[in-house]
Amino acid sequence: MNTLSITGYTRDCNCEHCGRPLKLGVVTPEKGTIGADCFVRLIQRDTKRYSGNGKPSAEMVKQYALIIAKGLEYAARQYGYRASSFVFQTA
Ligand SMILES: [Zn+2]
Fold first, then answer.
1. Do the beta carbons of residue 22 and residue 14 sit within 8 Å?
2. Ligand 1 centroid, distance to 47 Cα (angstroms)
3. Is the sign of the CA dihedral 14, 19, 20, 24 positive or negative?
4. Does residue 74 sit within a domain?
5. Ligand 1 center–CA 41 separation, angstroms
6. Distance 77 CA to ligand 1 centre (A)
7. For the chain, how many structural domains are there in total?
8. For residue 48, how far is its CA from the centre of ligand 1 (angstroms)?
9. Which terminus in the chain has less CB density within 10 A, N or C?
């Protein structure tokens, strides 16, 4: 199974997936720095994890990137997130 992980963000860059200019790029070890919209498109639906269409919104993905950039300890303390909270299965 392939995964896509969020490890941080980069401001004012280009999406390494589609080339679109981005105000905030999501850093992934697997696919480089990509846009939140592309991130959402690349991951698999998981209706156990997210209600509605089974995916986080692009806005949520950006929030995850901002949060994990401050470290996993911060993410756990402030939001109760775990390392797995930032890892997604790809479609
Ligand atoms: Zn893109």
1. yes
2. 24
3. negative
4. yes
5. 9
6. 31
7. 1
8. 26
9. N
pTM: predicted TM-score of the whole model, two decimal places: 0.95
CA of 15 to the centre of ligand 1 (A): 5
Residue 11 Cα to ligand 1 midpoint, Å, equals 14
Q: For ligand 1, a single-atom ion, which residues have Cβ within 5 Å?
A: 15, 17-18, 20, 35, 38
Tell me what percent of the residues of the chain surpass a pLDDT of 90: 98
Q: Is 89 among the domain residues?
A: no
Residue 80 corresponds to which tokens in the numbers above? 């109760």
H or E element at residue 25: strand 21-28
Per-residue pLDDT, 76: 98
End-to-end alpha-carbon separation of the chain, Å? Answer: 9
pLDDT of residue 91: 81
Q: Domain residues for 77?
A: 3-83
pLDDT in tens, 16-56: 999 999 999 999 999 999 999 999 999 999 999 999 999 99
Find the 19 Cα to ligand 1 centroid distance in Å: 6
| Owner of token pair 């995916």 | 55
> Does any domain span residue 88?
no
